[in-house]
Amino acid sequence: MRFVSCIMVACLVLVAGPASAEWFADVYVGQSFTEKNDVTAHTFAGQSVFRDVEFDRALAYGGRFGRYFDAVPFLGLGVDLFHFSPRIGPQNTRVDGCVPSGGCGGGPGGTQRIDIGSTAVSLDLMLRLPLMKTTAAPYGSLQPYVSGGVPFFITTVTPRTTSYYRNHEDDTDYSFGYKLAGGLAFHVAPNLMLFGEYRYTAVQVSVDELRSADSGHHARFKTDLNTHSALFGLSARW
Fold it and tell me: Which of 36-45, 184-193, 200-209, 226-235 has the lowest mean pLDDT?
């Protein structure tokens, strides 16, 4: 989680002098759950579509920094960096199209391990409701909030030794998606808040250069990552 530490250091540098707004720096961790989806594979055997593929639950973590404005204290902007890894594990599923053993009529099939790691960076619009204002917490001791953004996803697909991607190297996709989130933050100490957050992210991943180390054949992989995440974290405020 080195990048989380970098976010905290950068925020401390930015707020070292007097500020005209409330700055914040967040770190968080939790779990992500990616919905079932179809996976399209185009390999030496032809094109295959795996129906309703399940993704493993995965660790999710990241960091965010930004500020809420004095003139409109309910409105803020934040830069968010978020990572999750929705791996595809071995499973039985229906395949429409070609299979490595021959034939393209479809039928029962299966997948083996395919690792997927995705990092998203976004500029988020944040809205909060300052509740229970006190002298120690002029912006509210309790703050429900929502946020949204258009993240840029960097997603690496690493196929393991499978009948479809035997000895293929990894490839990285660069795509824009979207993100919606909502949470609740509350003061636990001066300049420190705890928060819980739910977020939904969506992006289509498509890689075309899963090159075989043996033959040089280029395979393709495509799916949608529609992911729900439950996160908990700490927020420093100035």
Answer: 36-45
Instruction: Specify if 210 maps to a domain.
Output: no
Strands 21-34 and 46-53: unpaired
pTM of the model: 0.84
User: DSSP string covering 204-220, please?
Assistant: EEEEEEEEBTTT--EEE
Structural domain boundaries, residue 50: 2-136+158-198
Radius of gyration of the chain (CA): 22
Q: In this structure, what token pair is assigned to residue 208?
A: 């075309």
Q: Identify the H or E element spanning 13.
A: helix 2-14
pLDDT tier at 11, thresholds 50, 70, 90: very low
Query: Is residue 222 within 8 Å of residue 176, measured between CB atoms?
Result: no
3-state secondary structure of 133: coil
Q: Does residue 12 lie within any of the structural domains?
A: yes
Contacts of 181 (CB under 8 A, 6+ apart): 124, 146, 147, 148, 197, 198, 199, 200
Q: Where are the beta strands (DSSP E) in 72-141?
A: 75-84, 91-97, 107-111, 114-128
Handedness of CA 20, 135, 7, 230 (dihedral sign): negative
Helix (H, G, I), strand (E, B) or coil at 17: coil
Does residue 150 sit within a domain?
A: no
Residues contacting residue 120 through CB under 8 Å, at least 6 positions apart: 80, 81, 82, 83, 151, 152, 153, 154, 177, 179, 201, 203
